[in-house]
Amino acid sequence: MNRIQNKLKENKKILSIYFTAGYPSLNDTVSIIQNLETSDVDMIEIGLPFSDPLADGPTIQASSSKALKNGMTTEILFNQLKDIRKTVSIPLIIMGYFNPMLQYGVEAFCKKCQEIGIDGLIIPDLPVDVYSEDYKSTFEKYGLVNVFLITPQTSDERIRFIDSISNGFIYMVSSASVTGSQSGFGDDQKYYFERISNMDLKNPQIVGFGINNRDTFKQATQYAKGAIIGSAFIKFIAENTVENIKQFVQSIR
Amino acid sequence: MNYNVNEKGYYGKFGGAYIPEMLYPNVEALRQNYLKIMAEPSFKEEFNQLLKDYVGRPSPLYFAKRLSEKYNTKIYLKREDLNHTGAHKINNTIGQILMAKRLGKTRIIAETGAGQHGVATATVCALMGLECIVYMGEIDIARQAPNVARMKMLGATVVPALSGSRTLKDATNEAIRDWINNPVDTHYIIGSAIGPHPYPDMVTRFQSVISEEIKWQLKAHEGRENPDYVVACIGGGSNAAGTYYHFLHDENVNIIAVEAAGLGIDSGESAATSVLGKEGIIHGCKTLLMQTKDGQITEPYSISAGLDYPGVGPMHAHLSKTGRAEFMSITDADAMKAGLELSKLEGIIPAIETAHALAIFEYKTFKTDDVVVVSLSGRGDKDLDTYVKYFKL
């Protein structure tokens, strides 16, 4: 069984942290991962930077541009991660847009992920129908969990379909927005969190977008299995050293 | 061979809808409804009425006598430059604003490069009394000031795209992000035959009035509906798609697509996607696009802002790969020369985009009795500054 699936079985609320690989400096990747693990984070999303990140707000866009300027590529990221499993056991997910994976070759990309010990992928612009027809068997062959997004506008019928083809967790986008763009949750979110919680899905849900402090983490995890923090962490790491990551995590829970 | 979109939204292997889940409900609603709405008699009537009374259609098919003499063939110009707002863009924005109204949307967003599509969108929003937000790269705002002023005068809000290279590609990203943030009340009027399915097909259908008119107009001139060649410039490819549409499946009609070579194909400053591009995903569709080996989208270059796009519509990618269309690329210098030539020979100042299509006559020889129809996609008013500086007029 995959590390993500094992982690989700634990009786605790999951804190997952997203960071952009190659930011703030090209070679920060490994030390950020190690420090996140020792800071008691449960899961890590490694962002593969892309020139045109459609679903991301200004913070992650800027970190992606900087990472690319720093020289980050798919090949370099895989090289940085090649011995990562010698030092960490935390579940690792690569989050990135589809075009760089397509250029690397989807099968080659998945194979490399398995060799390194990556547990799952989040590809926001790979649609569910294309995945299930063309790539599901490849992902499964290499033991990768694929994570799909749902939003407040996603119909129940579609959520059921996504649940049926998922094998890890469902990424619950907290509101109609790009990443990093809101503060606090209102009644709309509460209603949405409750609605999904009541659907009794087979996959647990982890909330992302708009989680930036203790309050929003608590609100999100009241209904869901866990929450993902991205932009707030990117802002923190821009102004602090990797050794201070523990402080950030402690400010959340 | 089928050159139209198939039921899954693909042209051969190109097309599809590679979009984040946040966009799915809107794009899916459009996909399920666009053909139904376009087939409604009341829609057709309103669309055709506006094209006639507001846009000024049909646009003339003009036999360019002096240009034809010079190149020893029969050249017809399809005068999209005479449309209201000065280009073919308005055919699509009229169609999409009527679509948006029927879908119950009250807020319109658009991207624009040179500002032609932005102006055409702001125009139809004024006409319908709908809120209009146009995303435009910060750099393009600086170099296309007259069109920015036009949009403002028409009541639109022009929002600078500050991300990435701050040009058309980034304006498109910003418009998509706006749509993610406003999923309920907003319709996104994409300006070219690009984007997730059904956009390429919808835009092509709205622009197909160009080839529909060419057929009956040519019949009156030449006694036959089909020319030997149809020629159009291609950025994303909306005027080309409309110009080719009704000839796609008549293999006797040769299709020529003209891309911007910029400073030259091998100069590193070019926008010739069919030559320099590779299969990939841009702005929600699988198509040919200019990118690094690593899959990062690169910045193209052309003197004409309208051709300065790193991708090409999926229909055109298919026409290129199947060989149905002949793709040519024309440099800045040749395009500028052709623009000046048309001005002097025919008294028509073309947009620099269009001038690329006119420049092929220097490179390709046609038979004396060949009938060649060129889409004169836009007028050159917006480019006067560039012409003046280039030729030191």
Topology:
The complex is a heterodimer of chains A (253) and B (393).
Chain A: H1 3-9, E1 14-20, H2 29-38, E2 43-48, H3 58-69, H4 74-80, E3 92-96, H5 98-104, H6 106-116, E4 120-122, H7 128-141, E5 145-147, E6 149-150, H8 156-165, E7 170-173, H9 187-197, E8 205-208, H10 214-223, E9 226-229, H11 231-239, H12 245-252
Parallel strand pairs in A: 1-2, 1-9, 2-3, 3-4, 4-5, 6-7, 7-8, 8-9
Chain B: E1 10-11, E2 14-15, H1 24-39, H2 41-55, E3 61-63, H3 65-71, E4 74-78, H4 89-102, E5 107-112, H5 116-128, E6 131-137, H6 138-143, H7 145-153, E7 157-161, H8 168-181, E8 186-188, H9 199-207, H10 209-222, E9 229-233, H11 238-244, E10 254-262, H12 273-276, E11 278-282, E12 285-289, H13 314-322, E13 325-331, H14 332-346, H15 352-358, E14 371-375, H16 384-391
Parallel strand pairs in B: 4-14, 5-6, 5-8, 6-7, 9-10, 9-14, 10-13
Antiparallel strand pairs in B: 1-2, 3-4, 11-12
Helix pairs in contact in B: 2-4, 4-5, 4-9, 5-7, 9-11, 10-11, 14-15
Explain what the structure shows.
The complex is a heterodimer of chains A (253) and B (393). Chain A is α/β, with parallel strands linked by helices and 253 residues long. Chain A has helices spanning 3-9, 29-38, 58-69, 74-80, 98-104, 106-116, 128-141, 156-165, 187-197, 214-223, 231-239, 245-252, and strands spanning 14-20, 43-48, 92-96, 120-122, 145-147, 149-150, 170-173, 205-208, 226-229. Chain A has a single domain (13-252), classed as Aldolase class I (TIM Barrel), CATH 3.20.20.70. In chain A, strands 5-4-3-2-1-9-8-7-6 form a nine-stranded parallel beta sheet. With 393 residues, chain B is an alpha/beta fold. Chain B has two domains: 15-50 and 89-203, Rossmann fold, CATH 3.40.50; 56-87 and 207-391, 3-Layer(aba) Sandwich (Rossmann fold), CATH 3.40.50. Chain B has a six-stranded mixed beta sheet with strand order 3-4-14-9-10-13, with helices on both faces. In chain B, helix 4 (89-102) packs across helix 5 and helix 14 packs across helix 15. Chain B is globular. In chain B, 60% of the residues are buried.
